[in-house]
Amino acid sequence: MLRILTITDSLSQRAGGLSNATFFLALQAALLMPNDFHYILAQKDIEEIDVGKPLPDNFLIKKVDGSRNVFFPWSSNLQEALIAINPDVIHLRGLWRQSSFACLAWKQVNPRKSLIVQPAGMLEPKARLRNRFFKDAYYQIFERKLIDIADVIHVTSAQERHSLIRLGVGSDRIVQLAEGVTLPADRSDALTLTDQPRRLLMMSRLDPIKGIELLLEAMSIIRPRGWICEIAGGGAISYVHQLKQLVASFDLSDFVRFLGPLSGDEKNKAFERASAFVLPSLSESFGISIAEAMAWQLPVLTTTGTPWRAISELDLGWYVPPDLNGLSQALFELFFAPPARLADMGKRSRHFVSQRYQWSEIGRQMVSLYRALDCAQHS
Question: What is the CA angle 328-331-333, rounded to 5?
């Protein structure tokens, strides 16, 4: 009987796609491995995605008290909680947090047990530019030790795989396994792409790396009639205030709305009323919200900073450089595209993700990795 622990910093909606993907992957693994125990360990936070959700008997979520400061959230109980669970396998999701310390200490004491580290895009070159000197030093002093001692490095795209190889991580330890989506009901008979105003949805953690300033500047150039851009997600209060000031300075109040963090029915309704989706990120290791939008039958506009080349190759939307010219041109084409073309892109997008990114299939692949590591432990 295996004891598999997924550890992450937070299960808050404000943590973005990582918290959602962490929860649903662990849940799917628990459903596929009913005779084994599965745990998630995280610090307590606000607006947590697991609240009110039914869980199987073999799936437990442990949250520890701590200081949720912006710079480095800390809990004096995290290491103790990890030891009490006594896992056979740890799956760490995300870096630059206390959980990295806890996992390194655990692995050093338990060298024959398995550690999976998922950087979750946090080692991508553009992601490391923010607080660059701190991150470079922190990586060389600490996170590199964690990467070196891990049995498996979990990446979600070929782009992230190449980035880690350039950092010196051996390709033999890298496993590529995408994130997944829950497929909503088919909307083919209920699409309302001709409703006015039509909505361009962005749903993401609000952070400078998401390219939101670029989107607002492009919107100020196009100023489309019959469209509004709805931006859903949470972020630092000071940064959200800056974005709202930018909307005012561009005189975009008639074109842009901030919805705040959304979950559950509110999140579903935002997707339901959207006609298209945009994620202008400068860098993404995967971009779970893109897969979610495609599952909701939406054409997607995103950048080459994400690993979604298939959008261009299969004509599922727009895949452009993360600069003003590329984004402005793509927005112009999207806003003036016939509704029937957008609907066709959306239908084919849903088919694409249904064949590759449903949680049932992603969970099956992760379970195979867990079992392979268990066999290696006992060989």
Answer: 110
pTM of the model: 0.93
Query: Among 280, 351, 358, which Cα is nearest to 318's?
Result: 280
Residue ranges for the chain with pLDDT beneath 50: none
Residue that has been written with the tokens 């190759």 in this structure: 313
CA distances from 345 to 272, 294, 311, 341 (A): 16, 9, 9, 6
C-beta of residue 236 within 8 angstroms of C-beta of residue 70:
yes
**pLDDT tens, position by position, 134-148:** 888 889 889 999 999
What burial letters (b/e) apply to 289-321, b meaning 16+ CB within 10 Å?
bbbbbbbbbbbbbbbbbbbbebbeeeebbbbbe
User: E strands, the chain, where?
Assistant: 3-7, 37-43, 59-64, 89-93, 114-118, 152-155, 174-176, 198-203, 227-232, 256-260, 276-279, 300-303, 317-320
> What is the CB neighbour count within 10 angstroms for residue 379?
5
Query: Strand (E) positions, 98-142?
Result: 114-118
- The correct answer on CATH 3.40.50.2000 for the domain covering 198-356 is yes
For residue 123, the one-letter residue type is L
- Tell me how far apart the alpha carbons of residues 177 and 180 are, in angstroms, rounded to a whole number: 9
132/308 Cα distance (integer angstroms): 26
CA geometry: angle at 274 spanning 273 and 276, to 5°? 160
Q: What is the pLDDT of residue 135?
A: 87
**CATH number given to 3-180+358-377:** 3.40.50.2000
CA distances from 16 to 133, 152, 196, 204, 214 (A): 25, 24, 29, 6, 20
56 token code pair: 């199987």
Spacing of C-alpha 297 from chain mean position:
19
What gap in Å lies between CA 266 and CA 272, rounded to an integer?
Answer: 10
| Dihedral pair phi/psi, residue 336, rounded to 5° | -105, 10
Q: How many residues does the chain have?
A: 379
Domain boundaries, the chain: 3-180+358-377, 198-356
Cβ–Cβ contacts within 10 Å for residue 44, how many? 15
